[in-house]
Amino acid sequence: MITFIVFAGLLVAGALLLLLPPLLRSRSRHDAEPEQAAIALTVLREHLADLDADLAAGRIDAATHAQSREELERRALEEGEASAASVASAEARPAKRWALALALGVPTLAALAYVALGNPDGLDPEKVAARQGFSQAEIADMVGKLAARLEKEPDNVEGWMMLARSYTVLQDYPKAAQTYEKLARLAPGEPDVYADWADVVAAQRGAVAGDAEVLVRKALELAPDHPKALALAGTAAYQRKDFAAAAGHWEKILARIPPGEDLARGVRASINDARAKAGLAPLADMPAPPPAAADAAGAGSSALKVSGRVEIDAALRDRLAPDDTVFVFVRGEGGGAPLAALRFRGSELPRDFSFDGVPLMSGEAPVPARVAVAARVSKTGNVSAAPGDLEGRVAGVAADASGVKLLIDTQR
Question: What's the pLDDT at 6?
Fold first, then answer.
């Protein structure tokens, strides 16, 4: 706000510096105007001399010379009359009052014009801060458009997952639950769907124990070590006052977290609270791992090194455009969110790929021993699948396998 006001003030001051000095000069207008008229007459005489020279050199004919000379003489007469009128007005009027009026009037008019035509609220930091980012209404509008698009793409699992999570962010839990119910029919083997659905139901009911716990059990049937499902299962047990079971679920999560992480300390505190209420001894503090063990843990976190070659089936090659976007994903063998992804252009196929050194989307979560590798040629350029996309998948691959052959052989 201060920067804007200072900058605007400098602009007004600059305008006044251009306007006021001529008005404050001591000499009068009847001295200045004849001088300007004399300069104008001198220029006209020079033009007349140039015309005579052009006629003598043959660059113009006599008719053009006469017409141009007549125009110059008319302008010279007008200048002479203006000069005479200026002298006849005789007395010079003082300009200080005009200078004072401009000095006061220009800033005032500028301020009034900004109030009437500008954005005064833009000078209020609180009001500006309130407008940062998307409003709730704008987010709701975008989510509505996504929902309308997915009605035309009923099999787009990733799109429906995005919509369900968007409803959750908006705290529209009934719509989120309905969307997860639809997802459960589309992807019945996806543990993330049941875990997220359980979370939404728990938010609606105010407790995990009950309806949400049924969904949690389904997620754990599909993936016994699913972190979110284990966390919710522990919470449900704690709410039922089955503190030993709660500690057991949370201890499985702790086993997957590196000991030095802040998250590990928080989970350990929750476990010890549950164990104390169950009459069990607290967990012993884990000593800091020696350097060799730390290096080994670091090596495990980057265990995704699967590599191979991605090709497109000959029957689909004519449907591949050079500018199409090609995504190669790695997921856990049981599904879930991608662990890592690569991106190419259609013109690069066939080509080799390698996930060695590619950053993991799952952060520090350990890489499963066996993974699934999938490729998608996106006609829209979006990560979400859409009708017309070309796809291929290989499952049951070791996380460090090499020479994997990935064939894009189906069309969505």
Answer: 45
- Give the Cα separation of 235 and 175 in Å (integer): 24
Distance (Å) of CA 77 to CA 221, 298, 332:
105, 95, 95
The phi and psi torsions of 384 (rounded to 5 degrees) equal: -65, 140
Residues 6+ apart with CB under 8 A from 375: 310, 326, 327, 328, 329, 391, 392, 393, 406, 408
Q: Can you state the angle between helices 262-277 and 243-254, rounded to 10 degrees?
A: 160
What type of residue is 292? A
- Are the C-beta atoms of 164 and 196 separated by less than 8 Å? yes
Query: In order of start, what are the domains of the chain with their CATH numbers?
Result: 2-123 (no CATH), 136-279+292-297 (1.25.40.10), 303-411 (2.60.40.2990)
pLDDT in the model for residue 13: 57
**Amino acid making up residue 6:** V
Residue 238 confidence (pLDDT) above 50: yes
Give the C-alpha separation, 261 to 247, whole Å.
19
Q: Which long-range contacts (CB under 8 A, 24 or more apart) does 61-66 make?
A: none
CA distance 290 to 220: 34
Cα–Cα distance between 78 and 75 in angstroms, integer? Answer: 5
Q: Amino acid identity of 149?
A: R
> pLDDT per residue over 171-205, tens digit each?
888 999 999 999 999 988 899 999 999 999 998 88
Residue 209 vs residue 120, higher pLDDT: 209
Model pLDDT, residue 130: 44
Distance in angstroms (rounded) separating the CA atoms of residues 339 and 355: 10
Structure tokens belonging to residue 291:
């350097």
Banded model confidence at residue 390, pLDDT cuts 50, 70, 90: very high
Position 15 scores a pLDDT of 58
Nearest residue to 331 (alpha-carbon basis) of 299, 365, 297, 298: 365
The letter for the amino acid at 73 is E
Buried/exposed 35-65: b ≥16 CB within 10 Å, e otherwise: eebeebeeebeeeeeebeeebeeeebeeeeb
**The model's pTM:** 0.41
The span from the CA of 158 to the CA of 390, in Å, is 15
